[in-house]
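User: I'm writing a tutorial on reading structure tokens. Could you give me a worked example: one chain, its sequence, then its tokens, then a sentence or two explaining what the tokens reveal?
Assistant: Sure. Here is the example chain.
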Amino acid sequence: MMTEEVRRAIEEISGVIPESRIRRDEPMDAHTSFRTGGPAAAFVVAENEDELSAALSALAGSGAEHLLMGNGSNLLVADEGYPGVIIKLGGDFESIEQDEEDPCLVRVGAAKLMSSTSAFLTGRGLAGFEFASGIPGSIGGAVFMNAGAYGGEMKDVVESVRVMDADGTGLRELGNEEMDFSYRHSAAEENGMIILSAALRLRSDDREAIAARVAELSAKRNAKQPVNFPSAGSTFKRPAGGYAAALIEEAGLKGYRAGGAEVSEKHSGFVINRGGATTEDVLAVMRHVREKVFENSGIMLEPEVRLINCSL
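And here are its predicted structure tokens:
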């Protein structure tokens, strides 16, 4: 049921964003990599900074609940859905452009996928992004949480980030240090800033050599991770002094299942949707894992996946 606050915000947003990009009661299982989640009261696609600013301003003025999503690869949305407005970036935010005067600097829009960014950089003979080639999701989401894999993190390649305040104002460019990157954290996450694009600093290298490294990491990922099942990647953050997957395996939880959700037999750090899982199934597995790991090790695992309108 759409609240009056959401209704007012959508009426104002529809004056800036075409109705074809404003959807009511939009099923979120179509927009998340877990393939679970009920409907969002409203789902809006903003294709440029002016549209995004206007949408955020309308939402701030109405007091309507809202959130910005990337590619949905790190979201777990409640089965009953989300009562507010979900904004997804498209259009101009999917751009990627190599600097003519500084070829090792590339500006990437927040909605550009990591995979297509990797393909672009490989084709230009630009190295340094190989670690991220198989990370699901978008540049904005990856910068927001300082995503990483195989010894690399976004902080290693981000030179600066263009951001907007949560109310649609305050456009500015923040340098790497100002982003305060740390493990799965950035200033954007802490302060609620919206990431619009990122300038990546790469280095020149042979295209075939870059492609070979990307292929090698892809083979490793496919061999070790359950890529053939819907998931949100690593379900829990790496705890201090250990690894979530090892703690889960030590607790004898590989293959633990609730409904259609399961701790992967292939990689215990992943909770997967084996088919027909609900968000509540996934949450039930996560709760059980946290409880048993804590009993076994004294370590309380923290979710890496973002919980939307639900909790552990």
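What the tokens reveal: The first strand starts at residue 22 and ends at 27. The helical segments are 4-13, 49-62, 114-123, 139-144, 187-191, 207-224, 244-250, 279-297.
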